[in-house]
Amino acid sequence: MPTQRIVVLAGGIGGARFLRGLKSAVPDAGITVIGNTGDDIHLFGLKVCPDLDTVMYTLGGGIHEEQGWGRAGESFAVKEELAAYGVGPEWFGLGDRDFATHIVRTQMLGAGYPLSAVTEALCERWQPGVRLLPMSDDRVETHVLIDDPDAAAGPGAPSRKAVHFQEYWVRLRAGVPAHAIIPVGAEQAKPAPGVLEAIAAADVILFPPSNPVVSIGTVLAVPGIREAVAGASAPVVGLSPIVGDAPVRGMADKVLAAVGVESTAAAVAGHYGSGLLDGWLVDTVDAGAVETVEAAGIRCRAVPLMMTDTEATAAMAREALALAEEVRA
Ligand code: GDP
Ligand code: CA
Does residue 288 sit in the same domain as residue 246? Predict the structure, then answer.
């Protein structure tokens, strides 16, 4: 049988952990990852790509396992020195080892290489065992429209402001109401080289349990990508990041609310819709959602969806591939 070509649209932690299971389930498959770059941020003059790096470090064996992001064995001397100069932000934790990645990336971008080429170069060191593509070489930055926490209280409409996604997520811990999620620059962005080709050539397209709004939603916001996935001949199967009506980790419920979607496995499937999804996996605790999802024209199964270790995650990947085969047949 020829090598199976699998395309995965991924965010950070959820996407990376799923990919580790997928690689273990189908070691011979050719896996292309289309990574979210809407979380990217410029800090201290450096370009930081949190989701691409989480995938690269996780699959390359450099991740801080318990934390799920950043480098293992990290130290924070640079951060302390910056703080001694009074230079922040102090709420974004970049370690010394991680800094090196951002320095190399920024240097290459400055020399004129596109982000896709830079990512490929960084992956030469990490050997993630997948082809890691940024969704776009163009700058896209997710902003969140919030009630201004610093606005003076008073009569009239509350004042709102847009903040960078990282400020909302990391500094404010999604603790203020979000009214809109805006992928700034997405409309003008072009898919990175190889993205549309990989989708068109795929045997299976998977949505891992990544954030449906600010990870997969941002990838799909790049003009051409949603259309390519919807029009692909390959079956498209997703795995719910919502288990028992709550995100497994993080605050996906807050950004789902901002786009008017309930935090349930069925509502997330409905948000993607049958135009995009052919199959959807929900956790066994959400077995009651199967009927609703199938009524919406999406084939659905309830299976364990907790990525407790690589074996459990590999089993999830096998279920997703089996559902894809079922849809194809
Ligand atoms: P981020 O960019 O680091 O936020 O990561 P992603 O967007 O890739 O994934 C975040 C999502 O992964 C969250 O909405 C979590 O609910 C989900 N998630 C994390 N661990 C698990 C798990 O073990 N099982 C499932 N089903 N979802 C998970
Ligand atoms: Ca992310």
Answer: yes
- Domain enclosing residue 180, as ranges: 141-186
- pTM: predicted TM-score of the whole model, two decimal places: 0.96
Ligand 1 centroid to Cα of residue 211, in Å, is 6
Question: Mind listing the pLDDT tens digit for each residue in 203-259?
Answer: 999 999 999 999 999 999 999 999 999 999 999 999 999 999 999 999 999 999 999
Q: Is 305 in the pocket of ligand 1 (CB under 6 A)?
A: yes
Write out the two tokens for 270: 């409905």
Whether residues 146 and 226 fall in one domain: no
Interval 193-197 mean pLDDT: 98
Ligand 2 midpoint to CA 175 (Å): 17
Say how many domains are in the chain: 2
